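Hello,

Our lab assistant flagged a job as stuck in the queue for most of the afternoon. It eventually completed. Since we weren't sure the result was trustworthy after the delay, we are filing this so someone can double-check. Below is the sequence as submitted and the structure that was eventually returned. Let us know if re-running is recommended.
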Amino acid sequence: MSEAFDDRRKALEEEYIRRKDQEALDKLRAEMAAEAEAAAAPKCPRCATTLTEVAHEGLKVERCPNCQGVWLDADELAQLTKREEGGWFKWLAGE
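-- returned structure --
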């Protein structure tokens, strides 16, 4: 009878250890995913701060919360150029 209790106790301990190992792996995977996401986030070319996405005239552009620089992708610049009639955006885009 004592053997049955020992076997049951060992089984419960092994299940507990497996569950704790799985929880630790899940936590580690979540931390690694968060680190990968942070590393993939665009950085400010001027000060290396992570850029935030803000809306500007219907477009989502990247802005540095540290140095306040605004960074446009090529297609974003083209879209702003199309909206403006003969302004400096056309000159900047080389049109």
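-- support follow-up --
The delay was a queue issue, not a problem with the job. The result is valid. Helices lie at 2-40, 74-83, 88-93. Residues 31 and 37 are 10 Å apart (CA to CA).
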